[in-house]
Batch of 2 targets.
Target 1
Amino acid sequence: MQLKDRIAIVTGAGQGLGAAISRAYAREGAKVAVIDLGLEAAERTAAEIRAAGGEAMAVACDVADRAQVEAMAARVNEAWGRIDILVNNAGITRTAMLHKMTPEQWQQVLAVHLTGAFNCLQAVVGGMIERQFGRILYVTSTAGVLGTIGQINYSAAKAGILGMTKSTAKELARYNITANAIAPGAATPMTETIRTDDRFKEKYLDRIPMGRWAEPDEVAPVFVFFASDAASYVTGQILAADGGMTIY
Ligand SMILES: NC(=O)c1ccc[n+]([C@@H]2O[C@H](COP(=O)([O-])OP(=O)(O)OC[C@H]3O[C@@H](n4cnc5c(N)ncnc54)[C@H](O)[C@@H]3O)[C@@H](O)[C@H]2O)c1
């Protein structure tokens, strides 16, 4: 087991990629705090993990809300004594062409991806520094590297995550805390429109050399790697699990 007795927080884990990461972590022996906006969604993933023999707790928390994040981290610390791994996975899209995008759409996306990741980072980092161990994982996207039409907010947020990853890695390396980012391409509710809408489907698939979407469960092992002892000397890296979409 690659994550035996580690304590992990995975945000946005009620469905999609976050749920797959949580399941993979639990299979590798970690205790997983499954975080999502609603308790019902988080509990669904946690129950799935427990049914498979793993250990999980569900916590409702809006990562963009500082007080909620602090309360969430306090709850995990109280229950399990520490936090070893943070996966900043929670994300949203608010798609609109840039001349029509509202200030609210711009703010909402930045609030979840950037402020949310920053809130969670600050809530866990003190304990990690004290114990001289930590694994921070960020989730970026091809959008952050290539830019996406109709998603100037999301592309800016995901490019921002790249900067956060590198800063986190440089600042925390001396404490034996690593920070890495994954750029996934996975079939989840977030990508349903481009996967099913005839206007986008073929065009998008044409840009993926492997010619297909990933299942979330085949992207999750990359998250296991970065959190594991196998990646003890790997920090500040961006790994694309995107079927070759960003080969250039
Ligand atoms: N699916 C892809 O192809 C793809 C590609 C690149 C990057 N990503 C990134 O991967 C991550 C997961 O995406 P997904 O495809 O699984 O999305 P998803 O929409 O299926 O799931 C996202 C989860 O995050 C939760 N969430 C949203 N806002 C939140 C908040 N403020 N606080 C807590 N939880 C919140 C949602 O309730 C949902 O359960 C996101 O960061 C996304 O940007 C996905």
Note: The pocket of nicotinamide-adenine-dinucleotide is lined by residues 11-12, 14-18, 35-37, 41, 62-64, 89-92, 112, 116, 139, 141, 184-186, 188-191 (CB under 6 Å).
Target 2
Amino acid sequence: MFQRERRSRAYYDGRARWYDSTNRIAAWLRGASPRRERRRAVRRLNLKPGDRVLEVSVGTGTNLPFIAERIGDAGCIVGLDISRGMLGVCQRKLRARHIEAGLVEGEAAHPPFADGAFDSVFHHGGIAEFSDRGAAIAEMFRVVRPGGRVLICDVGVPTDRPLSLVNRLLLRLQPEYDQPPPLESLPAAAQDVRLSWYFGGAWYMIEFNRPE
Ligand SMILES: C[S@@+](CC[C@H](N)C(=O)[O-])C[C@H]1O[C@@H](n2cnc3c(N)ncnc32)[C@H](O)[C@@H]1O
């Protein structure tokens, strides 16, 4: 494991208990409703009942109810994360909401899943902190089935509009997020690539398909 990943794991392990509340405060400062924005991102996955979905860097599992409501009981959710502390909070939230998901401790650049194991792969926050974003994206592409969909979302600097004052201040607190969306790291074979912005114009959404 790289030094950067070790640091991330220690950071999120220490922050897991407060992660959800600080996230809600950041969304509130941006003037965005976290539920609405997260649901909006999940909707872009075009999920169907029975789908198998992987969330890379699942954290405390805040997106999982939105995924579960789309894939139903016949579907399957797997969450991967480097931090045991975040997965612990996630597990408790899932139990309280009666949602079934497999939680796996591991790194985005080395997910222990077979080629094409999922219909969709979702990443929502964290990729700016990875030491090798290209390797993580290549793995998302590998584990999604041919014809499947990948959605990568994170805080970033918009390429098509000025950043608001609040977002500039929030980026000062986490300078690693002060960068454009990682379009240059997508696999050459990615199809139907689309970039859009949400969460008060401070988060990007990159969606693409794996060719059939
Ligand atoms: C900003 S949080 C996002 C959590 C969740 N997806 C959400 O939407 O709230 C980033 C997550 O990425 C995880 N993470 C950081 N580096 C990672 C890596 N190299 N591989 C897998 N997960 C990682 C952290 O432990 C943390 O849970």
Note: The chain has six helices and seven strands.
